[in-house]
């Protein structure tokens, strides 16, 4: 190819030509291939940057001591780009959710859902278990339309009879009652009997491999949830007002549709046998909400290695996202092993 012909190509076409040449002669260095195509220094840098940005060149391996670049196949590069964008979106959503929750908690009774009469939102932190119990008892008499609850663990034995009594009174008044539990409670004999009793009373019960927190919602005006979703014994947030409660209803609805009706459990999924211990450890930490940086510190590896481990785990579990990988891992029992605490 002549220098004039190369110069006539657009920058992206030059980069494509260079990429094809690199794939055709993988043993040649980047500079050798660029020189063969008679690219100027400026054109080489532009093509290099474009191929790196597209994920077609692994820039981590291009150094003066090791000038031969690692050429990435197009399909692999595309998957990496999609994963990067998905991770960026998930991180942004998580940050937005944390900021929203913090604002709701701090604003308290001064938070307003809008200018409509009666739209005021009240938020109260309750650290007295007796008061929480009174609120739930009062709710049984005041609720008009629906009570939705989710629970990460089993119900205490001494509370089962009371919960059934609340169910009888609510259902008798035409209140729709939904209850969601972690699939783990299906292995507890007392809970199996309790769920069967609730179902017999008319409560709609579902089991889910992942239940994010304890929560009780009533109508569009009441929400009870922990200040720390990872600590069921933490103080409770008591929120009133449709503007705030509807956001929790949306979260509940998403989890509810992903859960399985009680008595119609899907057969347990099998898989994950190809995961090594390092991949399993990374999976357990990610499923517990630990950030990539802390996973890297806990495992003593780089962020690049963590990203590789996540990609390998998702491929092994045939998952399109981290969330799907977590759900599948829970169904397969891959999260039942050692847990890792949260790092600072």
Automatic annotation (TrEMBL):
Residues 79-106 form a coiled coil. GO terms for molecular function: DNA binding. Residues 268-333 form the HTH luxR-type domain. Gene3D superfamilies: Winged helix-like DNA-binding domain superfamily/Winged helix DNA-binding domain. SUPFAM superfamilies: C-terminal effector domain of the bipartite response regulators (SSF46894). The keyword Coiled coil applies. The keyword Coiled coil applies. GO terms for biological process: regulation of DNA-templated transcription. Keywords: Coiled coil. PANTHER family: HTH-TYPE TRANSCRIPTIONAL REGULATOR TRMBL2. This is Transcriptional regulator.
